[in-house]
Write a structure and sequence with these properties.
Length: 192
Amino acid sequence: MIANLAQGVQVFTSNVYLVDGERTVLIDPGANFDVVSAIRERVDDLDAVVLTHTHRDHVGNLEAVTDAFDVDTWGYDTSIDGVDHAIEDEETVQLGDDEYVALHTPGHKNDHLCFYAADAGILFAGDLVFQNGSFGRTDLEEGDRELLIESIDRLLERIDEGLEEMHTGHGPSVTNNPYDHVELSARMARQA
């Protein structure tokens, strides 16, 4: 089961996904709200925190979560404070009940990862792509439009039209033809 704990929260934060199952994982703890209470309303414990990337709106609550649940954090770059274990490009990670492949997708930030479960038809896209052809900002430090386009193209090569759910770092999740939204993001990033 996937729940966005930031849904309805009226502060600047990222989406925060609790993926419950065999391995209960929090994807991006968000920022500026009491995510610990939101987690405790749904589960008793966490097995890990997994990061799409380390922009402040995605990791502001990281220390509160790791302290409250005594869990380690997994991300792309262990040289960044708070990232305990590295997830390599193409590594398989278990989130909930499904196996996901981690895809290193820089362009928005150097340490950006997307997570894709082909069998389940689920993508955690972080801030790479969003609904309706939107895509991650490239005007921040480490942003690079050409690299972002390459990352979106790489994602398109991996996913297929059977994609059922795309959970993004901001805005609503996409459950109606999410593959089309990623294709549109690739086109829009080239035009902007």
